[in-house]
Design a protein that fits this description.
By secondary structure, this protein is an alpha+beta fold. Helix content is 44%, strand content 18%. Helix 2 packs across helix 9. It starts with 6 loop residues before the first helix and ends with a helix.
Length: 346
């Protein structure tokens, strides 16, 4: 069985640790970056009629009467690619290639909420501490600036922006209903499909927030899924005829994602390392320290998201999840080695 190798990423991380032994405190100690404390909101999410769950460690929160959402997850839910340029601190959201679109669909399949989870909005009861970040945003090739009185925030590998800004910048119908805690979104393609199918509106779930006049995306707009609509269930019980996905298919997909993460991380960390070496002023070096911390946190966050997605798929298809421990052990072993060596050099 193929095992995920992240040593090249960790070796580059080692170079950063050698240069930035105290990077872990750089973000919190920097006087130029304001920190806030926010309470995650209990939310439910539905995009293009599909109920989704936020990845572990990502939230929706309110700050100064504005609702904030994670840029990367919402972009993925709208079937857009997201790229982070650490050198220019730029987030780019764009249409995916055919290959990227296929990968996005697979990734979103792991974020589909089951009926029980979708029935009750969920959120962490604890507060989270976020740091204000100076970032540029490009949507579909056009730069979109946050209004002068609004900010973007960073938390554990994710950048958050106001939901209204996300809606206006992406051109999608993204809505927030403060009464029900529902975040709904519809892509232009989905809206066109709905219109061609008869244009039947939903229950109006998303009529509040973000100033949108689009029809709701509540359960009322979806075809019935009750037992009476299923063929030959017999005795009132539903028969699951969904074909099981093979263990090798699931693990191969996971390892492909991990390899992609490794490649992207290697490229970004290499660029950060070379930029730090070439930097001549302290201000630039401090900015690179923050970018390094952000990137390392993103690597960890993406790694955890891939593991969570893979574990869910293995469980759903009746397979052992023992391989998850192998992936994690390899990652943590390399990380511990890097940190131990970095500490000896500090």
């Amino acid at each position: 069985m193929k095992t995920f190798k992240i040593k090249s990423v960790m070796l580059l991380g080692l170079m950063l640790c050698m240069l930035l032994p105290h990077a872990a405190s750089a973000q919190g100690d920097s006087s130029s970056n304001k920190a806030i404390v926010a309470q995650p909101l209990p939310v439910s999410l539905a995009f293009d009629g599909q109920k989704l769950e936020l990845p572990s460690g990502q939230y929706v929160f309110e700050y100064k009467s504005r609702t904030y959402v994670p840029v990367r997850f919402v972009s993925y839910a709208l079937q857009k690619t997201v790229k982070w340029n650490s050198e220019t601190a730029t987030v780019t959201v764009a249409e995916p290639t055919a290959e990227e679109a296929a990968a996005l669909k697979k990734q979103l399949a792991g974020a589909i909420a089951d009926d029980e989870a979708a029935a009750a909005a969920t959120a962490s009861p604890v507060s989270i501490r976020l740091t204000e970040v100076q970032a540029s945003f490009v949507f579909e090739g056009k730069e979109q600036a946050l209004p002068a009185n609004q900010s973007a925030f960073y938390y554990k590998g994710s950048i958050y922006v106001p939901i209204r800004f996300m809606a206006e910048a992406s051109g999608a119908a993204i809505k927030w209903d403060s009464k029900t805690g529902a975040v709904t979104g519809e892509t232009a393609a989905y809206q066109q499909e709905q219109a061609e199918a008869g244009g039947s509106g939903g229950s109006g779930e998303g009529s509040a927030g973000a100033g949108s006049t689009q029809p709701g995306t509540g359960e009322g707009s979806q075809p019935g899924t009750g037992g009476s609509s299923q063929p030959g269930t017999g005795g009132g019980g539903a028969v699951d005829n969904t074909p099981k996905v093979a263990y090798e298919v699931i693990t191969s997909e996971a390892e492909g994602k991990l390899d992609t993460l490794k490649t992207e991380a290697t490229s970004t960390l290499t660029n950060l390392y070379m930029s730090f070496v070439a930097a001549r002023d302290e201000a630039t070096k401090e900015q690179l320290k923050l970018q390094a911390q952000t990137e390392v946190a993103r690597i960890k966050s993406d790694f955890e998201a891939i593991l969570a997605d893979t574990a869910a798929k293995l469980t759903a298809n009746g397979h052992s999840t023992a391989v998850i421990a192998e992936y994690r052990a390899a990652f943590e072993k390399d990380l511990a080695t890097v940190l131990s060596y970095a500490e000896s050099l500090a």
